[in-house]
Design brief:
The chain has helices at residues 3-10, 39-83, 90-96, 99-104, 106-116, 118-136, 142-156, 162-167; strands at residues 18-19, 22-23, 28-29, 34-35. With 168 residues, it is mainly alpha-helical.
């Protein structure tokens, strides 16, 4: 590298932006083996992501909480008698089957999140989750309720890491 190129290299001649259709990487400092980034731009990008993503994630977390409360509220309202949940421990089983796929599919969901992308994964999870919650309102038997709870656990397992993934 010539002296002029080296001076331009270390003085920040490469801005990390697109110039004439070519992306110039941020300056690389060989002594620290790190790229130098503009902290203002990084903070602005994080704020932009937070403004767009956190309301959606907050809504999803609220819906998850409402869903967990709805089953007990529906039991008090008469679902217990309609679906025969008072027989044995059916009510407990219907609630516990949610957590089995939630724990099992948390890691595969994170792998899929990295391969598919967070925007696509969030859209898929929110849509599938909403359809399953809607279907849970029309169940006619204990078995159908248990299947809906398993599917909810499957879809909610991917929701947990979305906020962490998009913040890093």
């Amino acid at each position: 590298m010539s002296d002029t190129e080296q001076k331009r290299y270390y003085d920040g001649g490469y801005s990390g932006e697109v110039e004439n259709g070519v992306y110039n990487q941020p300056p690389f400092h060989p002594a620290t083996d790190e790229y130098q980034h503009d902290s203002h731009k990084a903070k602005a990008l994080i704020r932009k992501i937070d403004r767009r993503l956190l309301p959606i994630l907050g809504a999803l977390y609220s819906i998850a909480l409402i869903d967990r409360i709805n089953v007990s509220a529906a039991r008090v309202a008469g679902m217990d008698a309609d679906l025969g949940l008072s027989i044995g421990n059916r009510y407990t089983v219907a609630l516990v089957v949610f957590f089995i796929p939630y724990f099992i599919f948390e890691l595969p969901s994170n792998i899929a999140l990295r391969k598919v992308g967070s925007a696509n994964w969030l859209s898929f999870i929110a849509f599938a989750w909403g359809c399953t919650m809607l279907g849970q309102g029309f169940v006619n038997s204990y078995q159908t309720l248990a299947v809906c709870r398993v599917l909810l656990g499957l879809f909610e397992s991917g929701e947990c890491q979305l906020g962490v993934q998009d913040r890093t």
